[in-house]
Known about the structure:
The structure holds 2 protein chains of 2 kinds.
Chain A: H1 3-20, E1 25-34, H2 41-52, E2 61-67, E3 70-73, E4 79-81, H3 89-94, E5 104-108, E6 112-123
Helix pairs in contact in A: 1-2
Chain B: E1 3-14, H1 15-32, E2 36-42, H2 48-58, E3 63-69, H3 73-80, E4 86-90, H4 99-107, E5 116-120, E6 137-143, H5 150-153, H6 155-159, E7 163-167, H7 172-175, H8 179-189, E8 194-197, H9 206-220
Parallel strand pairs in B: 2-5, 2-6, 3-4, 3-5, 6-7, 7-8
Helix pairs in contact in B: 1-4
Amino acid sequence: xxxxxxxxxxxxxxxxxxxxxxxxxxxxxxxxxxxxxxxxxxxxxxxxxxxxxxxxxxxxxxxxxxxxxxxxxxxxxxxxxxxxxxxxxxxxxxxxxxxxxxxxxxxxxxxxxxxxxxxxxxxxxx
Amino acid sequence: xxxxxxxxxxxxxxxxxxxxxxxxxxxxxxxxxxxxxxxxxxxxxxxxxxxxxxxxxxxxxxxxxxxxxxxxxxxxxxxxxxxxxxxxxxxxxxxxxxxxxxxxxxxxxxxxxxxxxxxxxxxxxxxxxxxxxxxxxxxxxxxxxxxxxxxxxxxxxxxxxxxxxxxxxxxxxxxxxxxxxxxxxxxxxxxxxxxxxxxxxxxxxxxxxxxxxxxxxxxxx
Lengths: 126, 221
């Protein structure tokens, strides 16, 4: 269950950035999760909700954007999206969509990136 | 009058990258102390601890061990019987070691007196995939008793492996597992990796594992 430790790290990051930006409330958080991470987005979302209680993050909308797998083929030099139907991890990491070779390097799809947050803050100039 | 406004803040903080950075720091610390580290991952009960015990007894290095487990005292106790420095890392609710935990363990190890460090990860083929520790190589240990579809079901851990051990091959017939299929499944995912079939009970393949690790160490120095 390493969604919990990841969710804790996400909350820590988000609260840190929010405080540095004098947020009074966090409205929205966008997180990029790679398709090849061993993270279940629904579980991450659920745990973020639990951990957010009594913090600035409570009630914020959590948006999770899945990052598709990109590969570089060591056989034919193809670079780009891997051939995956979303149901079979195995195919995504073994097969080059161009030459069907298995010797591929994974370029994208393993991230867990806190991309942006939307915060509410007082507007001193208003 | 104070008004409220909504602002979007670019964060771009990747938790995975943060762990990877810590892992790099760990490796630097190991290199500064001339320690070569092997991350041993694998299924529960596949023989990770037994393999490390046998390596401790037969390898000509000053060995140290970090024993990571949900409750680490059982494995740590086994290693202590071999009179090597051991640190047990309790992961509690967590299913894997991470770079931060390992860094803590370094403080309790006499790194200056160690030249080969085994880091035994929690028995799990899923979660450790996302977490580099700073080791120089990753050895994956599975056994035929987990079923010969284990590799297919957990591809990523084999994709990243530097050495793969398929243990308990003496039991393959008894459990109806095809160990050759397991080898070829690994090769499909990771064409260049060395896959060694072992039985730690009969010592089949053990010398090969020892030699393979020695080659990795020599290539690094």
